[in-house]
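worker-03 picked up job from queue 'complexes'. Input manifest follows; two sequence lines, order preserved.
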Amino acid sequence: MPANSLNSIAYANKKNRVVFKARNFWSGLLFGVGLAAFIDEVGFHLLLQWHHFYDQSTLAVGLLSDGLFHAFGWFATISSLFLFADLRRRNAFWGKRWIGAMLFGLAAFQLYDGLVQHKLLRLHQIRYNVDIFPYDLVWNIAGASVLGIGAFLLLQTRKAVKKPKEEE
Amino acid sequence: MAQHLADGSVIQFLVVVLCLALIAAYVHAALLSNRSYRKWPIYRTILWIFALLMIAFSVGGFGIAGRSHAFTDHMWIHLILGMAAPLLAVLAAPMTLLLRTLPVAAARKVSHFLKSPLPVFISHPVTAGILNTGGMFVLYRSGLYSLMDTAPLLNGLIHLHLFMAGYLFTAAILCIDPSPHRVSYLARAILLILSLAAHGILSKMIYAFPPDGITLADAQSAGKLMYYGGDLVDAFLIGLFCWKWYNAARPRQLLKEIGEK
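worker-03 finished. Artifact:
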């Protein structure tokens, strides 16, 4: 019987996770954004000390963008974990979709930081007193690759949602 | 000058007396209403006592101009009086306690008043957010802060506003007490993020461009304290907000079996 009930839980999960596919997406995406903000804060501000609390070159629009994303990242980290707990409680957690959305959110934040905040708004640079081009190249190519992997996983789970309907 | 100092200490004394009176009133109401209703949770009483003690202790910092790190000291008051104490006071659900302690006819009048247009307008999350964050921008960006220590009454009013606006905003986000026109979780989440962002932006502006008469070093330590201290208090606020959602969104039945239907 235990094996049988395990099967039925797994079977129920397959149905539940389709019902809650949007919540799986948002939980993963928010966690990814929060993780990116956390890596930025701990890795680049505290450990490497390449970034600073405030740069004299920062423009008003940069301050606005930075403030909004810091607040959003803080909220995203905490709320995504409550959404995750909710999915577990409902037996509706979808690992592949969650990881896909997480990578997508992580990379989207990194690309926003790398392209809009660093280059367009000139909020700050990755590192100072060095030739910045290789850093920018690695930063944004890494971001784009992870974005691709995340999008690929999300598309796969979207196909998995559509398939059962076609069979019916 | 001596007259001014005396005025200031009169206000401080009155605030401490008021705080102690409010603690006594709360405990009395809890004991009284316990006779006719379910036992009032002890943790709420403890939170209320801590909130009021925080207010009473923070008045010691009302007239601090002239000290070497006056602005950083003020920022501690900002965090305690404007953020931490309101959070604890909101969690103590004083309005719920008031409504269950008053006789029914009086409680009806209070709840009728709370549903009238003005309180509903002021306690709406958007209005409360503007009063809270807008008040801070006015205080630190308009030169009001430098004027604050010239008149004890102005000083007291600004600190009163700091607490009341913080309370109003926290209450509007968390909705612990009965709230007649509750805004959706998503809308409240967006308002919370915007207010958090404004708080962070303001602390960086203080760091970079000190208010009149504040030294750069004092403004920098105050700005950092406001930024990271605010993040810490807001982490609790966000966590409690999400926890309330988590309980409200509780599935009515265990969905493990739903798929088998």
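worker-03 released lock.
Chain B is about 75% helix and 0% strand.
Chain B has a mean pLDDT of 87.
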